[in-house]
């Protein structure tokens, strides 16, 4: 398979690892868009990323000119193989001091990044795949919701999503109708806001940041930014890992693996409104990596 | 009450949750941050199990490690029917032990492949997958010949034993390690039978049997 030539994707910021799991000063090896990368987080928390090479055993041996763009954001190291924008998409809630901010896990998944985003946006599978947690029969209806492509923010926004959930989070004490808002501010990243069981006026934030290893394999980084004063970190992580572990076989059995962008390729239903908008948005951007572009 | 030191995505921990569910025994769970926290290698956990592996149980002051060993213990102590581990049947006990060892082989291959693909363990992925296929082929043939003789389970009994529980999880999760089961029809039929045992529960990555037939 050829290395990535999709300039839209090359010019994006991409996550490569969780800062919490990178021992200060230790070099981590990973892959992004079929290129081997190394990164290191300094004791000051600043990441350095470079294309792996045998003569460089640490960031101090990599001249500035050979370093890739790098930044720390939302608990992860981000880099780019092209010319990335000055800013990464905002998640203002991440700065709120009373939130629990955790990398629930980074999992390798045999799926294309866009297929994983679509699954993240889908509420229809909750009762069947996340039975008795995020959904339960007979509450299977995906009620009408709104989707817009925000032009000024260049992102997809799905609002007024509601779903009955038996156990929406570690802080839940029973079933409840849960409000959702989904954002897709990056072709391979999505941010979900859902009602907090502990504070009616606020929402828990759960994000999925996909690191494309190649067109059909990702590392999925799961960010939690939630309101929960009582549960231990590992209990909060376990909840999200349980959910993601249920999605994994579904993701890995999607066919074709790359997401078809031709509107006639797969038959959507009303509940797939956000997925339709997502596919259209990828087409408009001219994304070709991880997708099957619509015939011109 | 039994305490299980548990990680949700561990097939070896699932073996014990499964048996306890079949037997209807209550237990308490202590979640271990196996990944990404590596809590099973922490100082406090190594005092419980110097091998730094899950699962571990604590019961009446007894601390026990190793999924297969714990299956033997739980079935011997808590199964009044004596079917899951029939202590009075030497031939069957021998068979069960043989397949418990085989289950360890499945862990060393199919589970290793899954750890490589999903959690980035530094294993020889080709060797792990080839090893799993070799074991799956052997089990598939064994189950196929069993079916011809009217035997539904791994061992020579008219009911499942802990050998079935020990082999089940990492076979069910094998696709996560890039090991498809298309070529093992007898294994697939046996998996479906396991899923229809009364009291069956799932873990993340394992789905229940379809509603085609009521549970036995």
Automatic annotation (TrEMBL), chain A:
Record key words, sorted: Dioxygenase, Oxidoreductase
Keyword Oxidoreductase part of the UniProt annotation: yes
Cross-referenced InterPro entries: Cholesterol_7-desaturase, VanA_C_cat
Pfam family, one: VanA_C
Domain Vanillate O-demethylase oxygenase-like C-terminal catalytic: 110-284
Alphabetized GO MF terms: dioxygenase activity
Record-given protein name: Aromatic ring-hydroxylating dioxygenase subunit alpha
Lineage: Bacteria, Pseudomonadati, Pseudomonadota, Alphaproteobacteria, Hyphomicrobiales
TrEMBL record, chain B:
Record-annotated GST N-terminal domain positions: 1-82
Protein origin, superkingdom: Bacteria
Keywords from the named record: Transferase
Keyword Repeat: no
Pfam families: GST_C_2, GST_N_3
Molecular function GO labels: transferase activity
Range of residues in the leader sequence: none
Gene3D superfamilies the record matches: 1.20.1050.10, Glutaredoxin
Protein name: Glutathione S-transferase
Taxonomy of the source species: Bacteria, Pseudomonadati, Pseudomonadota, Alphaproteobacteria, Hyphomicrobiales
